[in-house]
Structures are given as C-alpha cells and as structure tokens.
Amino acid sequence: MTLDIGTVADAGLFVNGAWAPGGNGRFEDVSPGDGSVLATIADGSVADMVGAVRAARTAFDGGPWPRMSPAERSACLAELAAGLTRHQDFFDHLSRVEWGVANDRPGQVMAAASIAAGAAQLALVPAEEALTGPGAVGTLVHEPHGVVAAVTPWNYPHTLNLTKVANAIAAGNTVVLKPSPLSPLAALALAWIIDHETSIPAGVVNVVTTTSLDAARALTGHPDVDMISFTGSTVVGKQIAADAAVTLKRVVLELGGKSASIHLDDLHPDAYDTLAAQALFDGCTRHAGQVCVLQSRLFVPAAREKEIVERLVALAAAVRVGDPCASTTEMGPLISGAQADRVLSDIAGAVAEGGVIAHGGGRVEVPGGGHYIAPTILTGITNTMRIAREEVFGPVLAVIPYRDPDEAVAMANDSRFGLVGAVHGADPERAAAVARRIRAGQVTVNGARALGPFGGFRESGLGREQGLAGLREFTETKGVSRPA
Question: Which of 40, 68, 104, 306 has the most beta carbons within 10 angstroms of its beta carbon?
Fold first, then answer.
C-alpha cells in the first residue's frame, strides 16, 4: 500500500498494536510553507499516555521481544529498514510540506532507513562478555533497561524517531514515542509501517501524539518508565532531567548547541569560494538554520574578515528562499510564526549590542504565506554578545574575527554548549591539532565526517547516540560471577 497523509493522520494513536482515537480530541497539523492545515491529528490525553506506558511495560515484562534471540530482533529491524526504504517518497513529500525542508533531504529522509538497518546489525552484537578473577569466573551482561520514553523534536523528526526507537528496541527495550505536535506525521507513519510491514510484536513500539504538557510529563515522570531519551532544547532537557531524578531514571539528552567553525590563517584565498559556500550551509541555511549542529559562529582571521564577509554576502544574496516544494528553492521556511519572531528578535538584539547586518536580517515575502527569513550575515560581533552565546535556531551566521589560533580556540570553548565544531586549514595536521583542543562532542577537519557516536559536552547534553556506544546507552551492565 502507498502511504499518504490522510491514511497516516486518520489512523489515530498506536498503542499495544492497535489504533485508537485521542482522549483530547484532535489538533491541526499546519504546513510551515504556506500555513495550510495538512491534517488533523489525534490528541492524546494523560490516560492515553498512561495506557501506552502500561502496554510497553506489559510487552517488556511478559511479552516475547526481550526474550527473542538477537537474530530474531535483527530480522524485525531489517523488515523495518526495508519498509522505510519503500516509503521514502512519502517521507520526502512529508519533509517538504510538514517540516519545510528544502536543502537537507538526505539527512532528513534517507538516513532513517540507514539507522534502522544499522540497528539490525547492532542487535547481533553479543550482549555478554567474559569476566575472570581470583577463584572466580563470570559474565558481564548488557541487558535492556525496560520501558524507554522517546521524546523527539520537530526539526529532524524522522531521523531522530528512528535514532531512538530502532536502537532502543535493538537492545531489547520497549518504547513509548512522543513526537513534537509540530511534526507528528513521521512518527505515525513509522507506527503504520511497524504495524503493517514488520513482525515487531504488539506493545514494543507505541506512539502517542499530543499537545498536552500534562500528557508529556505523565510519560517522562511515570514510575514504570526506566529510561528517557530526549532531543530538544536545553531548557526542556533540564526539566526532563529533574523529573527523571525523582526515580533516578536513566537519561540520554541531546540538547542545544552554539557551534563554532574556525578558518585558519594558512588557507589560500582561492579556497574561500568553496569554504564560504560550506560555511553558509553549515552555519546558516541548512534547514533554515533550524539545526542543533549549526556552526553559527564563524571565526576568521582578522586580516581576512572583510574578503570572507564579502564572499558570504554574495552567496547569501543568491540563495533562493521560498516554497520547499519548488525544485528551485534552496532554503525553506521557519517552522512557525512564533519561531520567526524569536529569530528576528535575536537579530534585533545583536544590532542593539553593536552588531551589523551585512546581509538579510528580515522577512522574505513568499506567495502563499509561510514564515521566511533571509539568510543573515552579522559582523561586528564579539564572543560576549548574546547572539554569540545563545542558540538562535534560525538562518543567522555571526562572523567573529580572531588574532591567532589560540584566541580562536579560546572563544570557541567559551560557551556553555559543546555539540560540534569544525576546523579548516591548508595543513591538515595543524588543523587536526587545533580540532583536538575544541571542547565538543564531534569536531570535523576540512569537512571530513567519520561515523561515530553523537552527543555533546556541557549543556549540549548527556550520553551518546548512534553506533555501539549509542546501543549501550539503552542497556544496564550487570556482572554475574560464580566459583571457578
């Protein structure tokens, strides 16, 4: 069957392998591109959320999933990966009309199936290791926590839904997924694929869409939830951590960022055309700046600031902002009017502190409506200004000059965040040495991105996602010893 928005939206909540209406009625899912209502979505109540936790608890305590062999769980995850691949055209359409994506579909769409396929392989990793000691032998066992609450944001819903769900169930857990009410359809489509195209048993994955804060906290605070995996703002992450502390739930938090990219002083001017284009995408226009890994602070040699800014401005002026469904569009809308207002307020605040708008800084009118802001390049910024310290979550790049690499590193690290970083230089070894000094979970050198666990330092989060390290976050470690 071919998926469509109506089929997914009309299905309701997915709890214990069945579909049900929401106890709080329905809410509107609005397209950020033009403000039209895409669908109405089941609005789950506190009772719905409690029922979903009960279903997950029952499926873990008495169901087959935790007791299946690794090969059986892997086969179910391979079915899920195949289903996600079959329906990539649907998710591509969804990325445009519900998430407003114009320029990052590989990361938004294709990555999800790859994550599920990777989880299928991770499910086969041995969960036991041998232990030895004086007069004793034993086993180190990595066993699932139990019930995992997965709470995901609106900006990368499909990828992050799979990051949490696929890896949690690969480890043998059961899950209650609560997506953002601003992008609920990816989670409902995931549930539909699990229901119709996989052998994953009932209750292993439950999906509750809701606009209710009480329902959300009924999930994160429920005593039968053993672990919370959350991606979102640092403010909300701290509240979730506080809720989890009451029962000492395990938490993985992937939170905000204010990432830095350093262009070293040995770069040849001929390299700047390519580098400026990359800096504009990584630091400004990618998903209209609504990305936690955005490298929104660009540190450049003071002597070359003027020429770098000129290239950035020329590139920013050429970016085609508009309807994400149009093939010529290079940057789409912000998710909502409220988000656009916050970004414009941040830009105004930067100007009030002495910053200069080299390009952009205002709305872009697009036929049909929606909330569009021009790619914005700011100069005259110091690292102490609010625009350089707080996450904007919009298409705003702050260019900050430095005197020498030591100052650049010091400013990059002078942040309460530490999610990603980047260093570009003519000498890769020198650039790598600078990268090693940056306090962040992932740092790239000259754009190279090796696969590895993802997470942040300081207020960018706790724990890691992806790969074996991410799988182990969904397990407890237990030693079992016996006489030799």
Answer: 104
pLDDT at 272: 86
Instruction: Of 226, 228, 290, give the one whose Cα is nearest residue 254.
Output: 228
Q: Three-class SS of residue 468?
A: helix
Task: Give backbone dihedrals phi and psi of 224, rounded to 5 degrees, phi first.
Answer: -90, 0
Give me the half-sphere count of Cα atoms (radius 13 Å) on the Cβ side of residue 229.
Answer: 33
Q: Report the C-alpha gap between 186 and 38 in whole angstroms.
A: 13
Marked catalytic residue, from 79, 98, 284, 292 = 292
The Cα-based distances of 355 to 267, 281, 305 in angstroms read: 26, 21, 15
**Rounded distance between C-alpha atoms, residue 454 and residue 229, angstroms:** 13
**Pairwise CA distance, residues 196 & 87, whole Å:** 12
Q: Dihedral sign, CA of 295, 110, 324, 36?
A: negative
CA dist 93 and 350 (Å) reads 36
Count other C-beta atoms under 10 Å from residue 331's C-beta. 29
Token duo for residue 81 = 């990966």
Q: Are 276 and 285 in contact (CB under 8 A)?
A: no
How many CA atoms does the CB half-sphere of 428 hold within 13 Å? 5
Asked if pLDDT for residue 1 goes beyond 80, the answer is no
pLDDT of 73-123, one tens digit each?
A: 999 999 999 999 999 999 999 999 999 999 777 788 889 999 999 999 999
- Asked if 197 is an active-site residue, the reply is no
What is the structure's pLDDT at 376?
98
Length of the chain: 484
- 76, 79, 98, 254: the catalytic one is 254
- Is 473 annotated as catalytic? no
- DSSP state letters, 379-439: ES--TTSGGGTS---SSEEEEEEESSHHHHHHHHHSSSEESEEEEE-SSHHHHHHHHTTS-
The secondary structure element, H or E, covering residue 332 is none
CA distance 468 to 484: 30
